From TrEMBL:
Keywords: ATP-binding, Nucleotide-binding, Transport. InterPro entries: AAA+_ATPase (IPR003593), ABC_AA/LPS_Transport (IPR051120), ABC_transporter-like_ATP-bd (IPR003439), BCA_ABC_TP_C (IPR032823), P-loop_NTPase (IPR027417). Residues 5-239 form the ABC transporter domain. GO terms for molecular function: ATP binding. Gene3D superfamilies: P-loop containing nucleotide triphosphate hydrolases. SMART domains: AAA (SM00382). This is ABC transporter ATP-binding protein.
Amino acid sequence: MSAVLSLRGVTKRFGGLVAVNAMDFDVAEHEVLGLIGPNGSGKSTTLNLISGALPVTSGAIALRGSPITQLPAQDIARRGIARTFQLVRLLPSMSVLENVMAGAVFGHRRRWGYEAEAVAQTMLEQVGLAGRGHMAVGQLTYIDTKRVELARVLAGEPRVVLLDEWLAGLNPTELEEGVALIRALRDEGRTIILVEHVMDAIRSLCDRCVVMASGTKIAEGTPAEVLADPEVIRAYLGDDDA
Ligand SMILES: Nc1ncnc2c1ncn2[C@@H]1O[C@H](COP(=O)(O)OP(=O)(O)OP(=O)(O)O)[C@@H](O)[C@H]1O
């Protein structure tokens, strides 16, 4: 497997708490990797370490073999790792189109002006928001703000997409639309790390899963393999002492 992204011994401490403990995993080109685990197991922190939102305490992260550990977040974005956030982050004073153009301007490919606008329009179409670029982000429904955030990420033409609970908070109809959207990205051959609690989505979207509990990797394999693993089941049931 030629790794696009690799983590080796990646550890994050918050004071006395080891939130991420010696994580090792690789993500291959065109792979959808699910990073799963119970609440508080260190998934978002791991994404924050990969995207440079938080500094790593120890260990190494590489993008196509080049170290990115300790680089500032904007440099990591420039190199091609883009992410969504658990709480959608858009610029409220800017239109839908301008928010997506910001992704093109500050992303991996750095497009400007007309080119940035053209990429942004294409991505708005891809996420199902064609013709809504002029709207204020405050006018959008919740799922549409999520679509805008996804379009912004894609507009940067990233090599790796990090989705932090992108499906959280959607109603059942929206969830179907959201899963279809991520499946379309998967079918395009994008490389994705998906932090997610929705098990049906994990089963249908992920090639492989890494399971975390209390900051540590406890299992790795196909969704079917890891979800049948007794240690994973124990971790989800909160029965760590069993
Ligand atoms: N900035 C921070 N300062 C101190 N502790 C933190 C910080 N961020 C996260 N933690 C702690 O690190 C641990 C891992 O949290 P994290 O948010 O990464 O888990 P998670 O698996 O993403 O959880 P969830 O599924 O609930 O989002 C938790 O104990 C959390 O309280």
